[in-house]
Amino acid sequence: LDDYVFGLESVNRANVKGEKSAQKELVTLGLLRTQIEDTTLSTNKRKGAIEELRKKYPDYLKNMSDEKILNGGLSTTYDTLTTSILKRAKAFFNFFTAIFRKCFMARIIL
């Protein structure tokens, strides 16, 4: 029973870690998007946000010019990134849940 409780706690910790990571990434993405789209900021500050976004997600932005990005050309990319981040968080949780199940079942059999 103690092993089972420990396993459940481990899965819960992994889930919380995955959720926090996804939330942090989504907040960062949102802040960068806001900075890029804020036309009251200087072009240099907006381009700085673009560069940060390019560092974090090079594959998503490799074929987009700064001009297109500055003019709102990223809406589909933002949606794709958000979906990808959420899917990774779910996969992280599912991975740890599957490991826990296997370990728990192995203990039952033994």
Write the layout of secondary structure elements.
Blueprint: H1 2-37, H2 43-56, H3 58-61, H4 66-70, H5 75-109
Helix pairs in contact: 1-2, 1-5
User: Regions with pLDDT < 50 over 5+ consecutive residues?
Assistant: none
Quick check: average pLDDT? 83
* Count of distinct strands: 0
Shape: elongated
Distance between the first and last residues' Cα: 14 Å
What Rg is obtained from the alpha carbons, in whole angstroms? 20 Å
* Assembly state: single chain
**Count of helices?**
5
Main sheet overview: none
Strand content: under 5%
What can you tell me about this protein's structure?
The protein is mainly alpha-helical and 110 residues long. It has five helices and no strands. The chain has helices at residues 2-37, 43-56, 58-61, 66-70, 75-109. Helix 1 (2-37) packs antiparallel against helix 2 (43-56) and helix 1 packs antiparallel against helix 5. The chain is elongated and about 60 Å long. The two termini are 14 Å apart.
Keywords:
110 residues, mainly alpha, single chain, 5 helices
Short characterization:
The chain is mainly alpha-helical. It contains 5 helices and no strands.
